[in-house]
Amino acid sequence: MKRFFNSRETLVTESLDGLLRSSMGQHLCRLDGYPEIKVVLRKERNPEHVAIISGGGSGHEPAHAGFVGEGMLDAAVCGSVFASPGVDAVLAAILAVSGKAGCLLVIKSYTGDRLNFTLAAEQARDMGIPVETVIVGDDIALPDSRFPRGLAGTVLVQKIAGHAASQGEPLDVVARKAREAAEKIASIGLSLTDCNAYDTAHKTRLDDTQAELGLGIHGEPGAQQIDVAKADNLMAQAAAALQKALSGGEKKYALLLNMLGSIPPVEMTLLLEAFAKTPLAQKVELIIGPAPVMTALDMNGFSLTVIELTDDITKALKASVEPPAWPGVATFGKPALRKMPALPETFEVAASSSPQLEALMRTGAEALIENADSLNALDAKIGDGDAGSTFAEAAKEILNALDRLPLADPHALFGTIGRVLTRHTGGSSGALLSVLFSTAGRSTSSWAVALQEGLEAMQTLGGAKPGDRTMIDAIDPALKALADGGSIRDAAAAARKGADATRKMGKAHAGRASYVPESQMNDVPDPGAEAIARLLEAMSAS
């Protein structure tokens, strides 16, 4: 288990103190009750307003301490990882922030939270403090459950209650609005993994082909296991299950797309695009996120939460708040577009035919596509693991352009290939190869010498030279063989020798591999040089 922590016992207190030191926690403080009482509260609040208090087990960050601030919570009561805080901790929070207006406890529907928060509320009432409670059970995965679980919908209730309190509403009105909101919320979760609550003996219950639909936030098994599939398919299943639980009619909703822990940002927004393709998306007017709001440690999954919109709820959700963890609300619509500016023409010269050259180019391109995965695996050892994909992307663009290329005119062909690579391929290798071909296309020398001139320009721009452990170690000898009158078979043999030589070159002096320790590069060929060698070998074999 690789995790950043010192001990499970000190994890929560150290994390909370880190929050208070951070740029996101300057408006916060805590009660001096460690380790048993872990309560985060606002430094300043209006004592005439109803106090909003929530909390529960830790491991769901930014919930709940991250939502303490003006417009949301006045205090968050934090338990140990996935464990409800005790009655005394909840009571301490009530006593710390409640004035004459009283307080509202927003409680996630889990047994420990319901018991401890309710008992603390009773004790506070006995002390003369007005206390109301709202229990949030928004999970629809188990429709026959007597006590549905509280998921990310809890944060929406905190937002709505916090807004009502900030407007000076009395306790009975704040509680009523919170309860009405809780009744209008539904959630479901989907994950590719379970989570590890800092258990060194943890064993996952899911293999690489399994996912779970309808899950809680404490690592408990989901309502059903499903097959891992593409993002669109998984999102469609989650959205369909959620929509089935909603009442019909023309109701409109806000959607909270919540991340459960370890999904990278590029996948967060991809998941929102996947949701946009579902029928449920037609009923959504507002979007919150995607963002981590109610997480489950390192769980690789998401949850969907919808809340039926009313004028009051819409106003409450849109109101600005102090906690930076609140992701904000926006209109859910189509991506904004702007007209594409005119770019230089890629195919400046009319297409011409050369059946033999076309066959060679097709063979080489197909070889790069077929070798994409193995080149990626090679690149993962010393780079970022995308060399094969970059070369395959370039190859696909060349294949798509074959019938528009001036195959009978070498210099025009080089220039066109350079423009195709510039327009359609990424990565440093795509840019450098586009320089090589574009320069060769402008040359007045013979085609073989023109390619060498292109290589010189490529070296000048990229800063690499033969012996630096890059694709130049295969390109340079191959082009020299062609310039000396050799065949493509001679060029392929020279490229192979150059690529194999990179295995023993030690530390790279250019490219991303130059940041990798020499000890990790022994007997690993440069992926770019290997790609060039395999390209020419395939063409030679044909």
Rg measurement, Å: 31 Å
The CATH topology of the largest domain is: Rossmann fold
Largest sheet: 7 strands, mixed
What's the overall geometry?
Answer: elongated
Domain DhaK: 7-326
Protein name: Dihydroxyacetone kinase
Region (Disordered): 499-526
GO biological process, one term: glycerol catabolic process
Describe this structure in words.
This protein has 542 residues and is an alpha/beta fold. The chain has two domains: 10-195 and 209-331, 3-Layer(aba) Sandwich (Rossmann fold); 355-541, DhaL domain (Serine Threonine Protein Phosphatase 5, Tetratricopeptide repeat, Alpha Horseshoe). The chain has 17 helices and 13 strands. The chain has helices spanning 11-21, 87-97, 111-126, 153-166, 171-183, 231-245, 265-276, 311-318, 355-370, 372-382, 387-401, 410-424, 427-442, 447-462, 472-483, 488-501, 527-541; strands at residues 28-30, 39-42, 51-58, 75-81, 103-108, 131-136, 185-191, 210-213, 224-227, 253-259, 284-291, 301-308, 329-331. A seven-stranded mixed sheet has the order 9-8-7-12-10-11-13, sandwiched between helices. It has a six-stranded mixed sheet with strand order 1-2-4-3-5-6, with helices on both faces. The radius of gyration is 31 Å and the shape is elongated. It comes from Acetobacter aceti.
What layout of secondary structure does this protein have?
Layout: H1 11-21, E1 28-30, E2 39-42, E3 51-58, E4 75-81, H2 87-97, E5 103-108, H3 111-126, E6 131-136, H4 153-166, H5 171-183, E7 185-191, E8 210-213, E9 224-227, H6 231-245, E10 253-259, H7 265-276, E11 284-291, E12 301-308, H8 311-318, E13 329-331, H9 355-370, H10 372-382, H11 387-401, H12 410-424, H13 427-442, H14 447-462, H15 472-483, H16 488-501, H17 527-541
Parallel strand pairs: 3-4, 3-5, 5-6, 10-11
Antiparallel strand pairs: 1-2, 2-4, 7-8, 7-12, 8-9, 10-12, 11-13
Helix pairs in contact: 2-3, 4-5, 6-7, 9-11, 9-17, 10-11, 10-17, 11-12, 12-13, 13-14, 14-15, 15-16, 15-17, 16-17
Domain DhaL: 355-541
InterPro entries: DhaK_dom, DhaL_dom, DhaL_dom_sf, Dihydroxyacetone_Kinase
Organism: Acetobacter aceti
